[in-house]
Amino acid sequence: MAKDANEAMEAIQFPCASCGGAMLFDADSQQLKCQYCGRLQAIDSDNELPQEHALDDGMQEEADTDWGLAQQTIKCEACGGESLIPALQTATLCPFCGSPKVLSQPATANIKPESLIPFQVDRDDATAAFRAWKKKRWFLPGAFKRENTSARLSGIYIPYWTYDADTSSAYTAERGDYHYRTVTKTRVVNGKTETYTEQERYTVWHWVSGEYDRFFNDVLVPASGQYDAKLLERLGNFELGGLFGYKPDYLSGYIAERYSVNRSQGWGEAREWIGDALRSDIRAEIGGDEVRSLNIDTDYFNRTFKHLLLPVWNASYNYKSKPYRFMVNGQTGLVSGNAPRSAWKITFFAMVCLAVVGAFVWVYMDYAR
Ligand SMILES: [Zn+2]
Ligand SMILES: [Zn+2]
Fold this sequence. Notes:
The structure is a single chain. The chain is of the alpha+beta class. It has two domains: 43-174 and 207-338, no CATH class; 175-204, no CATH class. It is built from six helices and 15 strands. It has helices at residues 2-9, 123-136, 142-146, 229-234, 263-286, 343-368, and strands at residues 23-26, 31-34, 40-41, 53-54, 71-76, 82-86, 102-104, 115-116, 154-189, 192-222, 244-245, 255-257, 290-319, 322-329, 335-337. Strands 4, 5, 6, 7, 8, 9, 10, 11, 12, 13, 14 and 15 form a twelve-stranded mixed sheet that branches. It has a three-stranded antiparallel sheet with strand order 1-2-3, with no helix packed on it. Strand 14 (322-329) and strand 15 form a beta hairpin. The longest helix has 26 residues, at 343-368. Residues 1-10 have low confidence and may be disordered. The protein binds zinc ion (2 copies).
């Protein structure tokens, strides 16, 4: 804790009104808290609705890149992770993988987040969660279990885009409806030919066409270079009802990951998701038993985007030169991670199992005799 506070001292962006110490965002009180005198200061969150920004060509506005605090971008040579840290802080370790090979990047314009979920789980909670998680791992090597890894936990805001769009689609397709008819067939039974009837299904196809409009609100696309869809899934769902309008105060004491997926790439993913949703909507609207040759032509209007930050505690560690990762959802406290396994413990466990099974078999054989 002392080390983090010292690092923050180098770049006091939110000085305490009574002692001048660094105020960091405190997950317990959801306020800024002085690291020295403990003074709390409320974050005035004007209940302004997050602003959507136009994405459509021709009317694309200059994105706001003023985060309200001085930052620098650092990039890790080992994992490629890019993060935003306070301007004067000297980064020593990569928050994602723990590598010391971090380089300051030339100043880049980073689109300002529109809203975020503030950390609800603090460093102590995350550390305790990590300990409890380690304790529950049976096959963890003893040396690793005893190691104190709390200092390597980093609180990171990971980036997302959300998109809104009005869509208007024209479609054509063949709709197939099942019908049944009774057919008379013959078969040979015991050398005699007899007739019988059977229900036979056939499909009647006809062309349909139509129009379908739908508004899509807040299609969420991860923009992280460190957390792919799979990793994020393991962190569980963030409750987006807990979004607050962005204030630089929430970032005090935390790191923000710089988005690796830019807003147009993000739109590409959102559009794919929207395309799938439209396809299934339109199939349902067409009805019938089958649909084929479905062709959809969609126009998008009023496309807007927002940039969001979601909270994650991240710890990376190496054990016998293999990397492992531990994560805590900074909102819900859900824990996920992968752990090294001790080959010796697994072998021992397998031997105990075999011995138990062996004993049972022996007793049973003896009993059955
Ligand atoms: Zn103070
Ligand atoms: Zn790294």
